[in-house]
Protein: Glycan binding protein Y3-like domain-containing protein
Organism: Aspergillus pseudotamarii
Amino acid sequence: MRFQALPVLAAVLAFPTLILGEPDCPQGGYWHWSHEEARSAAAHGIDKWCNNIAPSTFKGGQEVKQCLEVDYDPKNVNLWMKNDNSGDKVLSIDQCKKLLKKIVDSCPAGGSDRTNDGWAPQAKPGGACWV
């Protein structure tokens, strides 16, 4: 009985990851966000940015992007938030922060995430602005 329960338990534990997904983290580049100080500076910038852009209604396909200067090297954090749906969608402040910080915490070189109910956020550290 114990051996039959293990595959079931493994499937149950993996289910949230399948549903929620993980950010797409490119393997190349500099792993700036592998340092706690860099992640903290990026999170602080994300807090400010999300407080400015949300809550708001995004039209289908609408994208907002900005390069922020932060208090840690690299000095810039490039942020994108896109409504990947065809219709309007409301972005809350908490949702904005959660989606972008998930990328910062999961992707040392930055990344993107298209697994969040039609939102397509991106966050990338850099010495320069790309947006």
The helical segments are 2-20, 36-53, 93-106. Residues 2-20 form the longest helix (19 residues). Residues 47 and 97 are 6 Å apart (CA to CA). The chain has one domain: 23-126.
